[in-house]
Amino acid sequence: MKPSTLLWAYASGVLGAPWIAPGAVWYDTKGTKIDAHGGGVVKRGDTFYWVGHAASNQTPMLYSSTDLINWENLGSQSTSVTGFWRPKIAKPNGSFWLFGQQDRYVLSLKSAEFIGDYSQSAKVHIPPDSYTYSDTGMFYDDSTETYYLLTSADHNIVQVNKINSDGTLGERVSDLRAGAYEAPGIVKADGVYFLIVSGKTGYRSNPNKVFWATSINGPWTGGSDIAPQAENTYGSQNTFELTVAGSEKTTYVYMGDAWDSKGGASSNYVWAPLSINAGAHTVTIDYYSMWKVDVNTGVVSYPSTLKRYEAEHAVLSGRTVVKDCGECLSKRSVYGIGDANEVTFHNVTGTGFRQWLSFHYQVNNPEAGEAHIYVNDEPAVNISSLNSRAGYHASTPVQLTLRAGDVNTTTFGATGGEGFEVAVDAHELSASLVSLRVANIYDLSSKILLLKFAKPEVKKQLLLDSGFRCHLTDFARTTAAAPSAFVQKLRKVLKTRRVTSVKQIGTDRIIEFQFSDGLYRLYLEFFASGNIILTDKELNILTLLRNVPEGEGQEPQRPGLTYSLEKRQNYGGVPDLTKERVRDALETTIQKTAASVASGKKMKKKPGDELRKGLATTITELPPILVDHAMRVTGFDSTLQPSAVLESEGLLNHLLQSLEEARKVVQEVTSSDYCKGYILAKRPNTESEPLDGVDGDQPPKANLLYEDFHPFLPRQFEEDLKYTVLPFDNFNKMVDEFFSSVEGQKLKSRLSEKEAAAEQKLNATKAEHAKRIEGLQTVQQLNVRKANAIEANIERVQEAMDAVNGLIQQGMDWEDIGKLVDRERQRNNPVAAIIIPPLKLHENTITVLLGEAEEIEEEEDGDASDTDSVSSFDSGYAGTEASARKVRETRLSVDINLGITPYSNAREYYEERKVAAVKEQKTIQQSETALKNAEQKIAAELKKGLKQEKPVLQPIRKQLWFEKFTWFISSDGYLVLGGKDAHQNEMLYRRYLKKGDVYVHADLHGAPSVIIKNSPGTPDAPIPPSTLSQAGSLAVCASSAWDSKAGMGAWWVNADQVSKSAPTGEFLGTGSFMVRGKKNFLPPAQLLLGLGLMFRISEESKAKHVKHRLYDVPDIVQSKQASTAAIGDAAEKASNDESDLDDSDIDFQEDGERKENPLQPTDGNNEEDNAPENVEQSDLAEGVGDLEISGESSHAGPSNPPPAAQDNEAGDDKEEEEDLEASTEADSIPPTTATNLVPGSSDKSIPQPRQKGQPPKRGQRGKAKKIANRYKDQDEEDRAAIEALIGAKAGKQKAEAEAKAKAEREAQRVAALERRRAQHQKQQRETAEHEEVRKMMLEEGVETLDASEAANLTPLDSLVGSPLPGDEILEAVMVCAPYSALARCKYKVKLQPGAQKKGKAVKEILEAWKTASTKKGVLDEKSLDKEKMWPREVELFKALKPEEVINVVPVGKLRVMMAGGAGDSKGKGSSSKGSGNRGRKK
Predict the structure, then answer these.
(1) Residue of 363, 372, 368 lying closest to 336 (CA atoms)
(2) What's the pLDDT tens digit per position in 1144-1155?
(3) Cα(1226)–Cα(87) distance, rounded to whole angstroms?
(4) Predicted structure pTM score
């Protein structure tokens, strides 16, 4: 069952039943359900007695009441009799008789007391026939005090018999033979008898009929309905008609039974007033959901709502959506309530006792399911069990017990749902989420979770609404401040785990998420109230959203138990669709229908429902709407009965074809990774037209009310012109759009209501002050009129004063004076006629009735009388009484002081007028102050209320590629990027520092690497000084200088001066670079940043704005491809195109002269700086060659070059050392500090042993010559003999052995050293090759970004600080930059070093902008005035989250400077005249 609308009103709350609610459970004074079915009511004295049979054993039960509402149970009236149906009580003589039905006969019971033990008398013989009779009724004819028994026979006869004085029945006085009727009852009104009967349909209700006659003896004619035929007598059957004769009117009451399928204990009662027109011979039921009758006056009344809760203001879940409703009291209602589509009311007022609550809702088909309610933490209760009229009438009252106070929560929902959409959702989620890791899990509410999944370059958000929906979302939502215990457990287990599988369990409404190859599993249940269950790989429940107790068809669920999958729908696989299976399904449907008819169960179904729903309950993998769609596609008649299809082989084959078509739709939907979706929408209060030509990702049309959505387009809706179909290429996006739109409408509605309430409160305050001032002005005017009236009637006033004063002086009593004046007035005494009683002589005052003057001159202060002139004074004393009354009505009542003259009385009124005027002026002044205070107070309350509300849903903004860095666009239009850490510094160098770019840095701790992107089209064009200065300011402000408040200058170099090639023996870490050549120092930077707002506009709007100095991306991509292909032969290409390059150089030099920049020398006019760079580059190439040579010679052994070569090498080394000393020292820039390295230190060589052939040391040559002269005559034999004689040979051999071992150890050490050196040289060669390629690419202008990155470089043209009229504003982007770079930003504030944390500062800035937008005259609704706020701008910056803006600010603590503080008219940092420097400090 899917109720289509819902409103809810709380009517009253007291113990017992202060109202009669047709169909609702009726409780007696002890809180027990009244059990008196098929009964009647008789009045004795002031007490009404209601007798009826008990549902359990059909014994007669008696209840008493004095108001027909609160009934006391008097117990069973006969303990010996059971099976006694429809008892009625009579008293034809001194004894009391109960007549009822037993075993198809009429039985009578007798008792001497009205309340007592009735004993069985005998079976009643009903003249004149011996038919079997049932359904006894009773009629009391007050005119004759005669009792009549009404019965219906098996031969379709309803007859009326008089009851004799002895309790027996007399002859039949009349009968009705108009058809098969039962349950008779008679009511008499204005001399006409009306016989009400029911059709014979068992316990199923039917349209009850009324026949009439002018005598109890008949004949009976007519046969009209007593209620609309479709209502089936409001689901009841007649049992008795009660007459309540009151002092003001006579009310007739219809008493009916709302039977359940078996006439059992769940049956209720339908009592309602009857509207009888005796002249027209009509009787109709006046149906009200709640009513009562005053038994003394006979007046019927209806309840007024004590407190009303509108569903549109409640917490809505699922597909529920607020729409316009013409017949609803609030003109708004909630649509789409179904399975898990619920409405929850919080802070419901309760009394602590049983009380009435009235639900206002409608359903499309009450027979299709059940609506239910949850009260606080109690289990769900079907409304039909509390009121049998549930779903059949717009208002359904029920009695519930709530806690005392505004502490109750009530949820309204209904059963229903389709597993097909679950299958589609699971299929699409599998394609989107598998291989992603869980980044985090958040609470959105007690039943809604947000799961974030991520992997490099991919982020997804999954919204889980327990029991209702599960889809990816592109909208940002506000999460809970702290995670719940359930979410904490989910985080502990699932965080960082990879999703390996997403699938549906069989065809049931359950989705399974597997993590880490099934190590953990998350089950989402989408039936009943839903659940989210986490298990391990053995399906042991670790945690779950809600514990489920064991119930009928439901296994218990709680931590520690095992989650069962075997009983899930088609868990083992979907059976094949065969003719035998379809035949079995039809037979099962026929058997269920027959069983329902046999049990008397209501079978209210539309044509075709029996077949379609029967198939849905037997072939469970196909929902009813899909079966209906397939039947329409294949041309199958869905209105056929299952029995007819089963009997015809052709129809059975046709039905099988339709079901195969439905299977085909499922296969098509799930065959691809992403399936389509269709939203069905209607236009409010207008005829909808089909929507043609809508793209899949096109946003929905405005002013459409979303009704439903499906993964396929049902043929029944495709042909319905009332619906507009919105197609989507992605089912998840469609679901997200559907629900996000609904959520957005709810949030906007709540925000609008709060703002409207605040405005209404302010207007009421203004009206109150205006009324007070108006009252003072009225007093002034009245005093002037009274004074003028005295002056115009001075003689009459004097006469009246003299007359009263004279009587007082005579000593007459005050009461006697009043009586005398009255007598004189009756005698038309003109003096007494103007005196109005009573006389206020205790105040020495009388009141006179004076006519105003025809013309009264204006006072000096400009006040004038606005009274109309009247006829002459004398006319007031003549003519008719009516004319005298009319004249009196146009006169003024004026109090006259008897102690002073008439003129003095007039003067007092003038004085009172002046006092009132002074009071008016003071009141006006005080009102201005009070209104201002009230406005501030209301604004503060509104601000507090809006903070409590969630922000309006906004799509998640996809960040631009450069937003991961510290960035801004300079005042000259150049993109400036700064690294936030060492890794980003490295990334900037390797990926984004290109030819023509400028590298900016500061020699300060924590200073980032900053690059300025130049145009690749003109890479040699100089960067403007203002851009260089702004980039330097960013480098300084983002360093430790900000906290120390000690600013200094930065410096810049060209891109080709920065490299990662370290000197020999040195290592450069991540984010560290070598800078060669001259540094260009910038002036000291001011420690001043700005936080501004930039807007991204559409492509069509970019043409209106001055374009930034950026390059054309398509050309870059082409040049990249061409240059990359030609890198291998770049030198040859450069030599071939030498003449062309020279020409281009000449052209550029001319252009450079026009754009000369004193801070940035160009290549053409700075030969001194270029020379070292060229030398450095050639030396680097030579060094690479030397490394390669030494690497090769290291394997060949020591080299022995000639002395000349040795001298050349030494000279080269010396020259290289001198060149390095002459040039600028190379700098190494680590992530947090800049440290100067000594390049010469890397040239220290390891000591080597003197090799053979090398020149001897000083003095060794002369010593060797002397030794040679001394032993020149010795030959080898002599030398050996001498050594043997002196023992030197053994020592020599030992020395040679030691020398040999030492040489071997040294050789091993040198070999290891050479290996390490070779590895280091290889790394240097690779770095040198990378740098060579990079320099070549810098010279050729070759890009290293891929096409997707290059394509993302163009959005800068669409970022503007101040939109122009007509611009289409898409997004708002926060930027933090040097304040001078934000000159063109409409919204900006200054930031200086301070002690305030940036998080708090950002919140204050955003709040200041929001507050400024609410001021009068600030907002330009037409978006034409550039100096005012525009609605789209306000909408965008209101959607900004402080958490996102905080990451934009590169400093930790600061001070905010805003012109005028938060009260600035535009909320901007400063005006165009620079007034922002004089602002309030925060």
Answers:
(1) 363
(2) 333 333 333 333
(3) 114
(4) 0.45
